[in-house]
Amino acid sequence: MDVAALIAEYGFPVVMAVGLGYFIFFIWKFIGEHIDPALEDMHIALIRVIDKTRMLDQDMIRLQQKVNVVLEYKATQKILEQDKMKEALAKQEGKKK
């Protein structure tokens, strides 16, 4: 049947309601078949990215702690070397007098 004949027989609001119903059904079906599976895949990928980001953050924290310990040891070593040099200078000055 022709759209004009349907409108003449049933009226514009009824024909438009049926057309809108078909449009909604088509969109619902498309979303169910294409969008939902893609969203599920993206959700799983997002969870993986979040987990990897957390692991990298934890690794960065551990690495920063190790660097801080090494820097602290270097500073302590430098202070000890300076103290030894001062003691050696003091001994040499004591021997000179």
Structure description:
It is a single chain. The chain has 97 residues and is mainly alpha-helical. The chain has one domain (3-96). It has helices spanning 3-10, 12-96. Helix 1 (3-10) packs across helix 2 (12-96). The longest helix has 85 residues, at 12-96. It is rod-shaped.
When the domains are counted, the total is 1
How many E strands?
0
- Compute the separation of the termini in Å: 124 Å
What's the Cα radius of gyration?
39 Å
Total of DSSP H or I helical runs spanning 4+ residues: 2
Q: What is the 3D form?
A: rod-shaped
Mean pLDDT: 93
Percent of residues in beta strands: under 5%
Output the helix-strand order. Answer: HH
Spans of at least 5 consecutive residues with low confidence:
none
- Derived from helix and strand composition plus strand pairing, the structural class reads mainly alpha
Main beta sheet strand tally, sense and closure: none
The helical percent reads over 70%
